[in-house]
Amino acid sequence: MSAMVPTRTRAPEGSPAKVKAPRRPVYTVIGIVILAFMLFPLYWMINVSLQPAGNAVATPWLPFDLSLRGYTTAISEQGRNLVTSLLISLGSVVFSLLIATPAAYAMAHFKLGRWATVVLFGILITQMVPGIVVANALYSAYSDLGLLNTLGGLILADSAAGIPFSIILMRAFMGSIPASIVEAAYVDGAGHVRAFFSIVLPMSRNALITAGLFTFLFAWGDFLFALTLTTTADLRPITLGLYTYVGSFVADWSPIMATAVLSSLPAIALLVLAQRYVAAGVTGGAVKS
Amino acid sequence: MADVATSRATSPSALAPAGRGAGHKLRTRLVEVAFIVPAVVYLVLFFGYPVVKNVVMGFQEYTTKTFYTGEAPWVGLENYRHVLGDAIFDRTLLNTLLFTAGSIVGQFVLGLAIALFFHKKFALSGVLRSLILLPWLIPMIAGTAVWRWILDTDNGALNRILGAVPFLDAHPNWLTSTSLALVAVIGVNIWLGIPFNMTILYGGLQEIPEELYEAGALDGATGWRAFRHITWPMLRPVVTVVLVLGVVYTLKVLDVILGLTNGGPANSTQTISTFSYDMSFRQFDFGAGAALGNILIVISLVFAVVYLRLNRKAVDE
Asked: Fewer beta carbons under 10 A from the terminal one: N or C of chain A?
């Protein structure tokens, strides 16, 4: 507790003579310990998934006796659900970006006056609506419209997190594109549509990637809509597959944990491949509206 | 009353006379509207409609029968009487309160401590900091699945670690005892929430100008005193947003509880959110489920007002 605040070491951001971060091995060790505590459950997930028999006996601390049995069982029993989740998540990304990108641009650059305020207010309100309320109403509406147990129905519902998030994130980004650049296009005779496609979209590539990645993760991790808007095993996202798995095969943990690992792969891949987008998305979508 | 009538009567005259560029202007305006309309339609259908529908359903007897006959008789406040009078309602309200307060305090304190730690510069800090995000990025239900096995009474990793502690003869039934299940569920939810809190607070810390600390150090404000007099006041806006968002998100948590305990044992982890799910989708009393959902909305709304006030600057832009 003694040194809560860093002693002067950091060069100001953007300063030409940037001082290299000090090594401070003690801090690195403490950092690794914190990380080890936080990530122990993930280690345990992988460890159990690699055990030959995850019966209701104590799992060894290390997977010395490596076995892929958990994974072969998981893939044969849950593989279809993984594909279902993949289709839903990709569909959700395409749909969300189609809806959110033009709206974000309009809110950042058009003179919508009071309208922009109303829409933004509406988006903030959506954050307060409990998912169970949406599910409750959608179930009866979906039942009337024949959308229960359909891919399209789940894609639409699973975009409910991605669309408001993407609008807020991309609006903040597009707002930082200088108006003069877009206006130059108007002077050259381009309309809104052309300016949007040929200038704004290419410039917003990073924001689009961030919004898309998070929309994918939201849809991939959805459990509530999977639980309430599907009633048969024909169309079942992996989250629901895992939930029913835990309920029915609670004696054999290796395939369950193998399924959990497989369902976590997109998040892990994302963090490794697109680290900078992830950090930008967490802060950008939540606070800086 | 009269004022409304007059203002309505005068408003059409406010329309600007059509000029030469009116056709072009109108087209531009239509294109502008077309950019934003799909999003508005979506938000209305997937957020506006459900809220309105829930308010209406709260006054109806809406059951499985309704799906066949299409009839949902009006029952006035019967659903509210039913859920408020339910033997477990008080319990769910208290659980909701404890779950929210416990989760928020835990996530925030640990998130802030970790954010302060990573604010120091050291080798690998960036990599370690982003890896901490993993629990937040993986599907919640996957997180709860592994915690179920970690918290298992006989063979769970946690009790095996506790068993190795000398002189400690504890073997808690984390998820199956009515007194501990809520504690366990809160603990797991804290674990899930730390990364989000840490990341936002870390971002806030980065915004505090280094010069303030230099000036403070000259006045002898280092360590705890620098935190109290510089860091905390400067961080306050971010803190408020994190806490309010945290409350709003935690009130509606469902995955964590269903994944770990299904609301049991003996309703000891049942919250308003899971109770609403239970009413609608297990007992197929959608009217009662809607009534509970509406109660949850009202509670959230109190915090929504606070949140919107905080965000007013953003809205006014």
From this structure: N
B143, B209: one domain: yes
Cβ B241–A27 below 8 Å, yes or no?
no
Residues B86 and B235 reside in one and the same domain: yes
- Is the minimum CB–CB distance between B310 and chain A shorter than 8 Å? no
Task: Kindly give the residue spans of alpha helices, DSSP state H, lying in B17-139.
Answer: 22-43, 49-57, 64-69, 78-85, 89-119, 125-131, 134-137
Domain annotation covers residue B188 = yes
Enter the DSSP assignment of B86: S
ipTM, two decimals, is 0.88
d(CA A262, CA A85): 11
**CA nearest to A33 within chain B:** B128
Does the global pTM surpass 0.90?
no
Distance CA B301, CA B210 (A): 38
Q: At what angle do helices A131-145 and B286-310 cross, to 10 degrees?
A: 130
Of B8, B43, B69, the one marking the end of a domain is B69
One domain, residues B223 and B83:
yes
Considering chain A, what is the average pLDDT of its residues?
A: 86
Q: Is residue B8 situated within a structural domain?
A: no
> CB-based contact (8 Å) between A59 and chain B?
yes
Examine the domain organization and report whether B37 and B173 are in the same domain.
no
Which domain range does residue B162 map to?
A: 78-316
User: What pLDDT is attached to residue B317?
Assistant: 43
Q: Residues B229-283: pLDDT tens digits?
A: 999 999 988 898 899 889 989 999 999 999 999 998 999 999 999 999 999 999 9
Kindly state whether A102 is in contact with chain B, defined as any CB-CB distance less than 8 angstroms: yes
DSSP labels, B88-104: THHHHHHHHHHHHHHHH
Sort residue A36 into left (φ over 0), alpha (ψ -120 to 50) or beta.
alpha
Residue B300 lies in a domain: yes
**Same domain, residue pair B105 and B224:** yes
Contact (Cβ atoms closer than 8 angstroms) between residue B245 and residue B103: no
- The residue of chain B nearest to residue A121, with distances taken between CA atoms, is B315
Considering the domain boundaries, does residue B206 fall inside one?
yes
What single DSSP character describes residue B11?
Answer: G
Nearest beta carbon to residue A279 from set B128, B199, B314: B199
User: Is the minimum CB–CB distance between A169 and chain B shorter than 8 Å?
Assistant: no
What pLDDT digit, counting tens, does each position of B151-206 carry?
998 889 999 999 888 877 778 999 999 999 999 999 999 999 999 999 999 999 99
DSSP A159: H
Task: Give the percent of chain B with pLDDT over 70.
Answer: 91
